[in-house]
Write a structure and sequence with these properties.
CATH topology of the largest domain: TIM Barrel
CATH architecture of the largest domain: Alpha-Beta Barrel
Number of domains: 2
Helix content: 40-55%
Distance between the termini: 46 Å
Structural class: alpha/beta
Shape: globular
Number of strands: 17
Largest sheet: 9 strands, mixed
Length: about 400
């Protein structure tokens, strides 16, 4: 894999403006997944959905005004179920509505099945320059438990092909799986790093209400590692990735310097982004406020709404300074770089409460970076929700 700097604009540290496109369809619903994803046993009319994406883009452009796009992300669902010409049409549509400079990050999520991998060259030709693969595990037993349709051989084949075709790639793994020991996870993680990726997303398995795993876990059909075991797995994750040159830059994301996901940094730095497609969310600055948008989740209902009125937005909220300050805190403290205190002060109208800040610092949960930034320590990350709640008061 060549030097990242030759393929993508350098990170300026600015929040930026991103475009998120949600493709809601999957070949199968994973039992742990609570994302807006839907299985359809009949062929999806991709042409009709593309037309709706373009219509909704026009509405979003009216909301955002002229903007320069700093990143594009196609998520899902399983975007790699799209035909390459569908991806090309979507990217062309974005370029017609906003300014898209050369060299920005354009990411697409993909699953490692062989049929989807055959399309990789088409996606690259369409303009995708970063692939994010949903690998999730590197042993077949756990892949089956997680409801994945691929096996390890298919995953490794997809990784190899992606490395050959795309300038940048990442893949996801889920840990803290039932019966997983620290030593087993360490071996699996080192194996993952050996594939010379520049970015890894490493998530602890969580049980979300409304998923099949929720009922199975409640019935004790499987048992997850307890709190202490999960903390050990998390600490091992940080140690191994850092020692192999992929330190954490966010709670669950690890990268070689310069290979951080530009699009996800836009979220965590509390930048603006427009969300297009079923169940997509957006944050769009309008004067002193931010407009929070959410579209209809059900794909066919969203499609009908767009065809009737030009967009599928079903929820809009104007966020004032206080709401923006809270969101900035919630998102920014996930980052190793922490938050810009000047920006937070401009939104909240105050400094952090001295007593609360001193308490959190004295207990080793947060730290100052000079006078302008504040971040969580490794200990603080483990209780991030509590830290955010304390500082927001």
């Amino acid at each position: 894999m060549a030097d990242i700097a030759s393929f993508i604009r350098p990170d300026t540290g600015e929040p930026g403006f991103g475009l998120y496109v949600h493709w809601p369809f999957c070949a199968a619903k994973c039992p742990y997944c609570d994302f807006n994803s839907h299985v359809r046993h009949q062929q999806v009319d991709q042409g009709r959905f593309v037309s709706a994406f373009l219509q909704e883009m026009a509405h979003m452009r009216a909301l955002t005004g002229p903007r320069t796009v700093t990143s594009i992300f196609m998520g899902g669902g399983t975007p790699s179920l799209m035909l390459p010409q569908t991806v090309s049409a979507i990217l062309d549509g974005i370029a017609r509505h906003w300014h898209v400079p050369d060299g920005i990050e354009i990411t697409m999520e993909a699953n490692p099945s062989s049929v989807e991998a055959d399309r990789f060259r088409g996606y690259r030709a369409a303009g995708v320059n970063r692939l994010s693969l949903g690998v999730q595990a590197l042993n077949d037993q756990d892949l089956k438990f997680l409801g994945r349709l691929h096996d390890v051989d298919q995953a490794l084949g997809a990784i190899k092909l992606a490395r050959e075709i795309f300038p940048r790639m990442s893949f996801d793994l889920i840990y803290a799986r039932p019966g997983q020991t620290v030593s087993a996870w360490e071996a699996e993680l080192k194996q993952a790093i050996s594939y010379a990726v520049d970015h890894l997303s490493l998530y602890q398995l969580t049980i979300e209400e409304g998923t099949p795993f929720f009922g199975l876990h409640k019935a004790r059909k499987f048992i997850l590692p307890d709190g202490d075991e999960s903390a050990e797995l998390y600490e091992a994750t940080q140690d191994i990735t850092a020692s192999h040159g992929l330190p954490a830059y966010e709670v669950s994301n690890h990268a070689r310097p310069g290979a951080e996901s530009r699009h996800n940094l836009t979220y965590w730095r509390y930048g603006d982004y427009a969300g297009v497609g079923p169940g997509a969310h957006g944050r769009i600055r309008r004067g002193h406020e931010k407009l929070a948008t959410a579209t209809e989740k059900h794909p066919e209902t969203w499609l009908s709404l767009v065809e009737e009125r030009g967009h599928g937005i079903v929820d809009e909220e104007q966020l004032g300074y206080e709401e923006q300050a809270d969101e900035l805190l919630l998102m920014g403290l996930r980052l190793k770089e922490g938050i810009d205190l000047v920006r937070w002060r401009e939104l909240s109208g105050r400094d952090p409460d001295p007593a609360r800040e001193d308490f959190l610092i004295s207990h080793g949960f947060i730290e100052r970076l000079g006078n302008s930034r504040l971040r969580c320590t490794p200990s603080g990350i483990l209780i991030l929700d509590s830290v955010v709640a304390d500082l927001a008061c």
